[in-house]
User: Fold General L-amino acid transport system substrate-binding protein from Rhodospira trueperi.
Amino acid sequence: MKGIAAALVAGVATVALTTTAAFADETLDAVKARGELVCGVSTGLPGFSNPDEDGNWSGIDVDVCRAVAAAVLGDADAVKFVPLTAKERFTALQSGEIDMLSRNTTWTLTRDTSLGLNFAGVNYYDGQGFLVKKDLGVSSATELDGASVCIQAGTTTELNLADYFRFQGMEYSPVVFDTSDQTVQGFASGRCDVLTSDQSQLYALRTKLDNPDSAVVLPEVISKEPLGPVVRQGDDQWFNIVKWSLFAQVNAEELGVTSENLEEMMDSDNPSIQRLVGTDGDMGEKLGLSADWAANIVAQVGNYGEMFERNVGMDTPLAISRGLNALWTNGGIQYAPPIR
Assistant:
């Protein structure tokens, strides 16, 4: 989810300029030497990055971290997860506290050009929406004039909300919180009439209400929110590894390679599958990894479709349909460059 307010960009950008050069071309070696990937995630968002009572993390964003660990270390469990708020996340990456960020973060021009960071793809196509109590009697965002709106600080949500209400000629009162948990608690306690965030986050936060059926997500989507993993600029090899770890999952789904049939697919005559699983070509060598880097991802984490359905799909509490996140061959816009 989200971006930073324009007022914060200059300060964070200063950190970026002074820190990214120090980490250029060093991340892969550091991760291998440590034997562990350090990955920044949210402070807790069901379906995306959320710890259970024993501190075990799960979610789409968590699986993106695990895929990189599988590619680099051959072990998807060799990850240390660092929970970060929206305001903390970019500084943690710029300073080297984490190796990568995988925390429902929107790819924007400002972030791509001003923070010393690179977005390594999109693992979830999203858009901002509104969650309201059913007893409010509202069926459209155009009926929210004068509403109080719970919102998380340090996010693009704040800017999108201001743009939308100004364009619609409506007024609102923002109620700002630091974390998503605080935001949903404020909504549940009646501090605000409306909670706004990415629609995926709204579905996740609704599950935290005492009675999830008491609230509804309105139909309007007011922004584009391409969410994906982020790395520091200046380390092209690491950028390529994170990017192609995600692309490998998307390509695997398109090619019909899953965690369940991987073993038989190792004997496939399809050249595209052979390059994916490492039985032909030197794809791993080009990335500075072993030949079975992508096979390790599929075996231990699954392809993109498996990852989606396991964490947020129709058989989970979030019950999110693939929509835009379906493959391009199935009416969505998930698409990866070929491995060749």
Summary: Residues 1-21 have pLDDT under 50 and may be disordered. The chain is about 40% helix and 15% strand.
